[in-house]
Design a protein that fits this description.
The protein has 12 helices and 6 strands. By secondary structure, it is mostly helical. Helix 2 packs across helix 6.
């Protein structure tokens, strides 16, 4: 939609012809724009919609503005037609014709009935309230039409953009929601029984309400672009929709976890039974070992071994019951908790066995050390040394008798080690028969 030249002195014939050509092109452009607005899908939807809120208020104003636009356009077309008729009177326009044309083309020559502007909800150029008529120049009238057209088109484009974007996305998300609800129901995720079931109900209510609001008040979901003067500059506000889409994705992940539980529940239960069985066997071994330690090791404090974890066995039975009744949403968190507790129990049982058998390990280490030194002195031909034989026998009696005093036995082993070390450090001299005695080669 264009802008005509400002007023000036009396126009000559060429100026009039150029102005009429420009006004004719402008008339066609304005008419094309108005017809496009009239046929705009958004405008047709607004006409038939049950609107509320800010959209209802703005559409009431826009509808009146569109009506006023056509009134202004008709007045503009009449003025243009009159100017063309005056110009067509004669090939060479007279001075009177040129004065009349100048007034018509540049002056406040266009009269619009006051009733049209008074009854319209759209704002008029001079307020218009109570006036029987208003007069405009063609320039002012075009500016006024441009203003009304831009405001109406902005409102129509914004509403249409929201309606084109959000309802379809909401419908797609709602369809996905319904599929998710069916899947959730099949694995026992229901409202009141599982948090994800409650979330699905909340998302359903929110999407239903959101769609109703978008349909009745689309402009409530429109974010204008700051600083933009173009009609329809902005974007749909998808904040609420995006939040529900993320919430539904979270629910789908939760249901996937429950489905995974359903698929491998039996294997996980078997593994749990195995872990708890190993823990029981380890504890039983620890209790047996404790009795052996108390019988074979003297003056030793042996830690008490606890009984089997009955609480975990009861929870395992509950998990098996959940599986039999397909209560996957309850089985999922219980299995995760049990798996961690079972591993902790097995670790505790192993630590208990290690603590109980520590004295036996010490005795075994002393026995091994004693035999290792005996083998070493034997390689050097010192096994028959009377002192070593005496100390070896003493240490061996202590280590292979029950109950064994580990502190006394360790001292006996140390005495044997020291004696062996002294002999191995002593220099030896080879005898005539090839054996060694006295000074000579040093062994270590």
């Amino acid at each position: 939609m264009g802008v005509t030249d400002p007023a000036g002195p009396v126009m000559d014939r060429d100026e009039v012809d150029r102005a009429l050509a420009r006004l004719g092109a402008e008339h066609e452009a304005i008419e094309t724009s108005l017809l496009a607005l009239q046929d705009h899908a958004g405008r047709r939807l607004l006409e038939g919609a049950d609107l509320t809120g800010v959209t209802k208020e703005r559409w009431t104003s826009a509808e009146a503005a569109i009506t006023l636009l056509w009134t202004y356009f008709d007045a503009y077309a009449d003025a243009l037609r009159s100017a063309r008729e005056i110009r067509a009177r004669r090939r060479w326009s007279s001075r009177e014709d040129l004065v009349e044309l100048t007034e018509l083309l540049r002056g406040d020559s266009v009269t619009v009935a006051g009733s049209a502007t008074a009854t319209a909800n759209a704002p008029t150029l001079h307020g218009g309230s109570g006036k029987l008529s208003e007069r405009f120049s063609l320039v002012t009238l075009v500016d006024r039409m441009n203003e009304l057209y831009a405001g109406s088109l902005d409102m129509v484009v914004a509403a249409d953009a929201v309606w084109s974007a959000l309802p379809a996305r909401i419908d797609l998300l709602s369809a996905e929601l319904q599929r998710t609800r069916k899947l959730a129901h099949s694995v026992g995720v229901r409202p009141g029984e599982h948090p994800a079931g409650d979330d699905l109900e909340r998302i359903t209510r929110t999407l239903t309400s959101l769609r109703e609001q978008v349909i009745s008040d689309p402009l409530a979901f429109w974010v204008p672009t700051q600083g933009s003067s173009a009609p329809g500059g902005g974007r749909p506000d998808t904040t609420v929709y995006d939040r529900q889409a993320r919430a539904l994705e979270d629910v789908r992940r939760e249901i996937d976890a429950v489905l995974t539980v359903r698929q491998d529940a039996e294997a996980r239960l078997v593994k749990l039974r195995d872990v708890l069985s190993r823990a029981d066997r380890t504890l039983a071994e620890a209790r047996t070992a404790r009795g052996e330690v108390l019988a074979k090791i003297a003056a030793t404090e042996v830690p008490v071994v606890s009984g089997p974890p009955t609480a975990l066995q009861e929870q395992l039975a509950t998990a098996a019951e959940y599986r039999r009744h397909a209560q996957w949403h309850r089985l999922s968190p219980l299995l995760e908790s049990l798996e961690q507790k079972a591993e902790d129990e097995l670790l505790r049982a192993r630590e208990s066995l290690t603590a109980v058998t520590a004295p036996l390990a010490v005795r075994a280490e002393l026995r091994g050390r004693l035999d290792a030194y005996k083998a070493k002195v034997s390689r050097h031909g010192l096994a028959e040394d009377s002192l070593l034989v005496e100390r070896y026998d003493a240490a061996r009696r202590m280590l292979w008798s029950a109950p064994c005093d580990l502190r006394v036995a360790e001292q006996a082993v140390l005495r044997y080690q020291h004696a062996a070390a002294e002999l191995l450090r002593a220099p030896r001299v080879p005898k005539q028969d090839g054996s060694e005695e006295g000074r000579g080669e040093t062994y270590s």
